[in-house]
Automatic annotation (TrEMBL):
Belongs to the Nudix hydrolase family. GO terms for cellular component: cytoplasm. The lineage of its organism: Bacteria, Pseudomonadati, Verrucomicrobiota, Verrucomicrobiia, Verrucomicrobiales. Monomer. It comes from the Bacteria. It is an enzyme of class 3 (hydrolase). Its EC number is 3.6.1.56. It comes from Akkermansia muciniphila. This is Oxidized purine nucleoside triphosphate hydrolase.
Length: 167
């Protein structure tokens, strides 16, 4: 396990308000991203995903969210890591996000009121259009490494990070 941090201590006591998921489909050197059209992080590039509904597991949530946002059915979802986000401002709830990868799906990625999908080369991911934490863990995940991370934000701006990833 490799650990990196901004000198920030992982909080001992922290409970998320919201459980959420993200999905990154990678196929033939390309990654399926979305321009998020509404909700937390509207306007940013991200993977599809969203909040758990009552009684759902992380896997059930991510499969439902991807179906709702892009009209595709994922066939081989694998959970790769967990992201914890704490927001200093107090207007955005504390979020724990389970992150999945997949390589196979049925259907055609379709724009919906929530998301505009696009394929992007894995070596050309537009990190400057994404949440600031993504550049810390997404490259490790794309190398097949599992991870857990904690990030603090003030609005859009990342303040501190602590990342544990497989060697
Ligand atoms: C702070 N740094 C961040 N970095 C990367 N991703 C981030 C993020 N902060 C939030 N996210 C993602 O945003 C979605 C929740 O957004 P949210 O608007 O609540 O969900 P969405 O509207 O899609 O879902 P519902 O349809 O309401 O369930 C969810 O996937 C979550 O992981």
């Amino acid at each position: 396990m490799q650990e990196k941090s901004s000198g920030f201590q992982w909080p001992a006591q922290w409970t998320p308000d919201i459980l959420a998921t993200l999905m990154f489909v990678v196929q033939k050197g390309r990654i399926l991203l979305i321009r998020k059209k509404r909700g937390i992080g509207a306007g940013k590039v991200n993977g599809p995903g969203g909040k758990f509904e009552p009684g759902e597991t992380a896997l059930q949530c991510v499969l439902r969210e991807v179906r709702e946002e892009l009209h595709i059915d994922i066939e081989d979802a694998r959970e790769m890591g967990v992201l914890n986000f704490s927001f200093a401002c107090g207007t955005i709830p504390e979020i724990r996000c389970h992150v999945f990868m997949a390589t196979s799906f049925t259907g055609t990625p379709t724009e919906t009121p929530e998301a505009e999908p696009f394929w992007c080369p894995v070596d050309g991911i537009p990190y400057d259009l994404m949440w600031q934490d993504d550049r810390f863990w997404l490259p490790a995940m794309l190398d097949g490494k599992r991870f857990e991370a904690f990030f603090t934000f003030e609005g859009d701006r990342m303040l501190e990070f602590s990342l544990k990833a497989e060697d």
